[in-house]
Amino acid sequence: MEQQAIIQETTLSPEAKEKSPFRKVVSREWRRITRRWPLLFVTFIGPVFSFLLIVWIFSYNTPRELPVAIVDMDHTALSRQITRMTDATAIASVMRNFGSLTEARKAIESGKVDAVLYIPSDTEKKVYKGHSVNLALYLNNTNVIKSGLLNSGIRKAIGTLSAGIKLQVQMKSGKASRRQYRELYPFS
After folding, report:
1. Where in the sequence of the chain do the CATH 3.40.1710.10 domains occur?
2. Residue 188: its pLDDT value, please?
3. What pTM, to 2 d.p., does this model score?
């Protein structure tokens, strides 16, 4: 009896041996997927379409030359330097100088500008006396990416200017050393 069972087992066709249970299931599911449009879409077409859509959305570069307004209440060489440094960033483009925050607020609300930089009066006097001055940056946060990039770009420009002014003040007073100079300007 045992010999007959062994003989019967060995006489199975080669096709039957090749079709393992796993292959049978894969074959059956493949037929089901290819015969039904929704399954075919969800399994293959949808993911490829989603990937291509995301690639297309993010294929554009970062925003550039976003409109920024300046409210300059100081009207000094330093405030003009702040305006130039802001305009020199890749992300910001100074479009207008407003006389008051009310006008600038209306420009933000109407969408004419994406940010307003407020420079208070006596900024230059306070800075050169060694006091800190708070510059206010108002952003239109309806587009978080644009406002984040503007915030970062303008703050970097003002930080660079601030480091330069700090070094100038220290050098004039004789407090600046070569080490401090290298810390502020690591590239020569």
Report:
1. 66-184
2. 46
3. 0.63
